[in-house]
Predict the structure of FHA domain-containing protein.
Amino acid sequence: MIVLLGRNPHKGQEDPEEVHLVPASGDGRMISRTHVLIGTDPRGVYVVDRGSTNGTALVASGGELEPCPPGTQVRVREGQQVSYGNRWFTVLRRPAI
């Protein structure tokens, strides 16, 4: 599964057909139009910052932010938080239905 998250996300030519576009709700002035790609593969979850203005970062166990270089696939551990713009989400595993 691949998700593009942003203020008004758009699929790029390099993105697969099955990309899900997820607009960020609320006041998104800190979030770029297409901010971050979230994907899964057999190794787990990864994120790719799409060259956003305010960046994407992993939140380390001590709370410090580890910036994700734009265009680089960065692995995310289960339970880890990802900061994007002025928001964040936590990666959690859910049993298959």
